[in-house]
Specification:
By secondary structure, the protein is mainly beta. It has 7 domains: about 90 residues, Galactose-binding domain-like (Jelly Rolls, Sandwich), CATH 2.60.120.260; about 170 residues, Jelly Rolls (Sandwich); about 180 residues, Jelly Rolls, CATH 2.60.120.200; about 30 residues, no CATH class; about 160 residues, Sandwich (Jelly Rolls); about 170 residues, Jelly Rolls, CATH 2.60.120.200; about 140 residues, Sandwich (Jelly Rolls), CATH 2.60.120.200.
Length: about 1050
């Protein structure tokens, strides 16, 4: 039956109902698989009479269903009436034994197809095997192969280099060797291919001409055919195998001539007796089994296991006499066997590697013939020599060493030297006797705790990969983590860019001119790119993007029929260029054109003889100083052309050199992508041109603001698209005690950021796990009519809230909770849909998931809201520099430079100090009241993982002729430190001491002698394990990685210039 929905009711006229349940399905009634909703559970009933219907997101084709109550009415008991919705399902199956296959021959020798559709279902307990393979006459091939429990598709149409070693498959799916049905759909239309396994689809393009092939199903039965490669045949069952609408299994069953059968293909599925069980808990799961026979002359144990955990106790066997025991455990992904003896040193041996890869691994342990033999996956055995035979005490403990205590209420007492095993086991043999797990479940054999029988409940938390921006996903049994090293992003899911969005932002934090990586769309899909930031101007900060044609280009011999074409390749991608230009207030590009008898326009009809292409590849024939549509040059605008009868100097067509140089500044067309010159083929004709880099200034979003002066007013935007991740940042200033900054609602879900009291900002949301609330409380009022910064983030791993420089609030997401935030209303900014608790004040620089919101434009059409914000500190003129804070006064403003390394009225004057050999400056940090407040109110929500989310950003300049020298040390109360020193040879070294029992990480970003009396500027930036070091004057930019994570957020003091020893 194909099941599409299930419905439940409680027991009639009672207090008995089930409020949530798990749904399992099986093809045989013995091996079960859980149907997973987003969090694995189905919503049940709230009373005994109402019917609750749950439609399945994808139907399941099954013979058996099992409903397992998870929660029920605490005032009653479990009561469940069920109804199943679906339709009949016709099944054609073929069973392959690893040596058999089916060959399908086309009716014609060669047949060209534009569209191909292959669909099938399969189940197998083997991780390797070819499901289908085909080869054509012109080098085309297709192979669908089960490899390491995943599906690899090799597809090439008409490519003669099919045997190249560069064959790279498209891989989809995971854990497909679980002896449950999996659906496969391959769709090809021309060169577009969709590969779908269960509900996961991969779309890609393939090359070739699209010829059809001979296909074999279940293996490769074409011995001797040129190019056939050796692979293991499929061992398992296939169902409803269709090729372009043709039922292959039906043809085979009816012995049609198009089908050739190799080996023993049967048309009913065999049912291997595997008997898996799942160990659920890392603290209390165990399975205790007695020895099958007398074990006075040694014993043997065999089993298969699969897990994601790198550590876990697999087997513990108490020996005679006590306290001798034999322990088999996974340690750092390897199998580790330890023999503990009384009064003697323990004996140990290790074998295997990466045993936490989620695949099934076989283990055999034998203690006969005065040695212990350990074999993993049929690899060479490892042995421990014995002086005497081992004698088992009688019981073997799988997964953990636990016993039942019957004193009073029955309890479980567990003893672990390491964590218990979390994973699956099957095919357990003790002294060559099979263990029937059904007898264990029925209480007829052994004992157990926290086990699931007849199912392997392993899941791949990295499918789909929830790590963003190329982050690498790894997992344990209960969670996943993202390695963001080298991606340019940080956070639990690699969501947050570690770079500033613009050169303007680098200027505001005190940076000087140089090359910087910027990320113009923040956490959006565009990656970071390197640009040059020119900060020498008093007002404008220029962003400079270079291209591949920096030298002047000389052109001769070109014509309209054979023009000279120069393609400009920029140092950043087209999408990044578009983002830089769109986010800037002004952009320009200089075009220098020197000519001799080389015209830009034809004097007869005005048609262009030379032109340039814009960023979209459109032809443009206007030149510097003019807007689109005006075919003139800058000399016409300045009224100084060499011949006033023409609008360009070059159009005078003189034999002497002339010049038409100008600035292109229409943003929508920049940058220049191609230069085309078509009039240098006459005698004496020549052109020399040079196209400058793209130069932009101003950050359009930094001061984009709106003022709210009615509590019932708000701005509305389209629904927030942030199912899996959302980061929200903005600045606000207000005199009101409370108000909602923004809100977006769904049917049951919501997300909200608000000023909940004069000194507290609250971030709350609900994705189905119940409301989650994060609050940051300041020791000073936040409604002081000064600008304050807020950044709230929520993803599938965690949520965080940052307000100004106050400590980051952090909350982990539940391991088995709902993931997706489903919203349906409009996004309300400055108020709510109910028009209550509206915000009164100013909001600026609102950015969500890298997208900047144009508050000013939307405010122009909204009553009760105006564009911009009043006050001296609300403009883009950067009154206070280098992290200085602009504070409004009744008759002006002042700059608070207390958080800046600069002084003066505008925080733009460097503060410097001279040291002799014995002098130093120590700055002692005192824990602020706000830290203690936040620690008390929400300590339970803060994980130790939050240590790794702290950042360091250190910048300073120095000049010295002495080495070695201690430049700077930053120390914490927990004995950690960062040190920046000059070695004896004057080279720079960065020391990170994060664990007192380990040697520090030492980085040497520059080997040159920096004790040369020149001024050098150092910038040190750390996010998690990533350390970025920039050395000005040396042109050094280093991206390095720490061995351990996390400088604690308890800095005690900073010392500058002291001569002290580093341990």
């Amino acid at each position: 039956m194909e099941v599409t929905a299930v419905a439940t009711q409680g027991r009639y006229d009672s207090w008995d109902w089930v409020s949530s349940y798990l749904l399992l399905y099986s093809d045989t009634g013995r091996g079960w698989k859980q149907y997973r909703q987003e969090d694995g559970r189905f919503a049940g009933n709230v009373n005994s009479e109402a019917v609750v219907l749950n439609k399945l997101s994808h139907s399941i084709k099954t013979r058996f269903l099992r409903f397992i109550p998870f929660n029920w009415n605490p005032s009653g008991w479990m009561g469940l009436r069920v109804e199943v919705y679906g339709c009949s399902y016709k099944s054609y199956v073929a069973d392959f034994d690893g040596r058999s296959s089916l060959l399908y021959r086309f009716n014609q020798k060669s047949m060209s197809t534009v569209k191909d559709v292959i669909s099938l279902r399969f189940k197998s307990h083997q991780a390797e095997g070819v499901l289908l393979h085909g080869e054509g006459q012109r080098g085309d091939y297709i192979t669908l192969e089960l490899h390491r429990g995943r599906l690899d598709l090799y597809l090439n149409l008409g490519h003669r280099l099919r045997f190249s070693s560069r064959r790279v498959p498209v891989t989809v799916g995971s854990l497909l060797d679980d002896q449950h049905w999996h659906s496969v759909l391959i769709e090809r239309f021309n060169k577009q291919v969709n590969l779908t396994v269960d509900s996961h689809t991969h779309r890609f393009h393939t090359g070739g001409e699209g010829h059809s092939m001979e296909l074999s199903f279940g293996g490769i039965p074409l011995p001797g055919k040129p190019g056939t490669f050796l692979r293991k045949n499929f061992h398992g069952c296939m169902e409803n195998l269709y090729y372009n609408g043709i039922n292959i299994i039906d043809l085979a069953k009816r012995r049609k001539p198009q089908i050739h059968s190799v080996g023993n293909v049967t048309f009913s599925c065999s049912q291997p007796q595997l008997g898996a069980c799942t160990f659920l808990s890392s603290t209390s799961s165990f399975l205790s089994l007695p020895s099958a026979t007398s074990a006075t002359e040694g014993f043997s144990v065999r089993f298969h296991f699969r897990t994601w955990n790198a550590d876990g106790l697999l087997l513990s066997a108490p020996l005679v006499p006590e306290p001798q025991r034999l322990e088999l455990q996974i340690t750092n992904t390897r199998l580790h066997l330890t023999l503990h003896r009384s009064g003697r040193h323990k004996s140990e041996v290790s074998t295997g590697h990466t045993l936490n890869d989620g695949l099934w691994h076989s283990v055999r342990l034998d203690t006969r013939n005065l040695q212990i033999t350990l074999t993993v996956d049929n690899e060479p055995s490892s042995t421990i020599e014995l002086w005497e035979e081992l004698e088992s005490k009688g019981n073997f403990y799988f997964g953990g060493y636990c016993i039942f205590s019957h004193s009073g209420c029955p309890t479980v007492e567990c003893q672990y030297a390491t964590a218990a095993f979390q994973g699956c086991m099957q095919l357990i043999f003790i002294n060559s006797q099979t263990v029937d797990l059904s007898h264990v479940q029925q209480g007829l054999l052994g004992s157990y705790n926290e086990l699931q029988f007849h199912t392997c409940n392993i899941r791949d938390r990295c499918l789909p990969n929830l790590c963003e921006h190329g982050g690498r996903c790894s997992q344990s049994w209960s969670s996943f983590s993202c390695d963001c090293l080298g991606t340019g992003y940080s956070g639990g899911t690699c969501h947050n860019s570690i770079y500033e969005a613009s050169c303007e932002a680098y200027k505001l934090i005190g940076s000087s001119s140089g090359f910087y990586s910027i990320d113009p769309d923040g956490s959006g899909p565009l990656g970071p790119t390197q640009v040059y930031c020119n900060m020498t101007g008093e007002i404008a900060v220029w962003t400079v993007v270079t291209h591949n044609s920096t030298a002047p280009v000389t052109v001769q011999g070109s014509s309209l029929l054979k023009p000279h074409i120069m393609t400009l390749n920029y140092s950043t991608s087209a999408d990044q260029l578009h983002a830089i230009v769109a986010g800037s207030e002004h952009c320009q590009q200089e075009v220098v054109y020197n000519c001799r008898k080389s015209r830009l326009f034809n004097s007869k009809d005005g048609s262009p003889l030379s032109w340039w292409l814009d960023r979209e590849g459109e032809r443009r024939s206007y030149w510097g100083g003019f807007l689109p549509g005006v075919q003139q040059c800058s000399c016409s605008l300045e009224e100084n052309c060499v011949d006033m009868n023409y609008f360009c100097n070059c159009d005078a067509d003189k034999e002497t050199w002339a010049n038409d140089t100008g600035i292109l500044s229409y943003k929508d067309h920049l940058p220049v992508s191609h230069m085309v010159v078509g009039d240098t083929n006459r005698t004496g004709s020549q052109a020399v041109y040079h196209i400058g880099p793209l130069r932009c200034y101003g950050d359009k979003t930094m001061w984009n603001a709106a003022s709210f002066y009615q509590e019932s007013s708000y701005l509305y935007f389209p629904t927030l698209q942030a199912e899996l991740a959302s980061d929200i940042s903005f600045y606000f200033k207000t005199g009101s005690p409370s108000g909602v900054f923004l809100e977006n609602l769904g049917l049951k879900h919501f997300i909200r950021v608000e000023l909940s009291s004069p000194s507290t900002v609250t971030f709350s949301f609900d994705v189905g796990n119940g409301p989650a609330v994060l609050s940051v409380k300041s020791h000073l009022p936040l409604n002081d009519r000064q600008w304050h910064y807020v950044r709230a983030e929520r993803n599938v791993k965690e949520a965080s809230l940052q307000v100004d420089e106050l400590p980051l609030r952090f909350m982990e997401a539940p391991a088995e909770g709902y993931l997706r935030l489903r919203l349906s209303s409009q996004l309300f900014v400055g108020g709510t849909a109910s028009q209550q608790r509206g915000f009164l004040g100013c909001i600026r620089t609102l950015t969500i998931n890298g997208v900047s919101f144009d508050l000013e434009e939307r405010a122009k059409m909204t009553p009760g809201v105006s564009s911009g914000c009043p006050g001296y500190c609300s403009g883009s003129s950067s009154l206070c520099h280098n992290r200085g804070r602009c504070i409004e006064k009744s008759s002006g403003y002042v700059c608070d430079c207390s958080q800046s390394a600069y002084g003066g009225t505008a925080c733009d004057q460097e503060v410097s100090v001279s040291f002799d050999r014995e002098s130093s400056v120590t700055y002692t940090f005192q824990e602020p009241f706000s830290v203690m407040q936040n620690r008390n109110s929400q300590a339970s929500s803060v994980s130790t993982e939050s240590i790794s989310r702290a950042r360091e950003d250190v910048a300073f300049s120095f000049s010295t002729t002495q080495s070695p020298a201690m430049l700077l040390t930053v120390s914490t109360f927990s004995q950690q430190y960062i040190a920046v020193i000059l070695a004896k040879n004057g080279s720079l070294q960065i020391w990170y001491q994060l664990k007192t029992n380990k040697n520090p990480d030492v980085f040497s970003p520059s080997s040159s002698n920096m004790a040369d009396g020149r001024l050098h500027r150092i910038r040190l930036h750390r996010v998690s394990r990533n350390v970025y070091i920039q050395v000005r004057n040396e042109g050094v930019f280093s991206n390095l990685c720490l061995h351990t994570v996390g400088l604690r957020n308890d800095i005690s003091h900073t010392v500058i210039g002291i001569q002290q020893k580093i341990h």
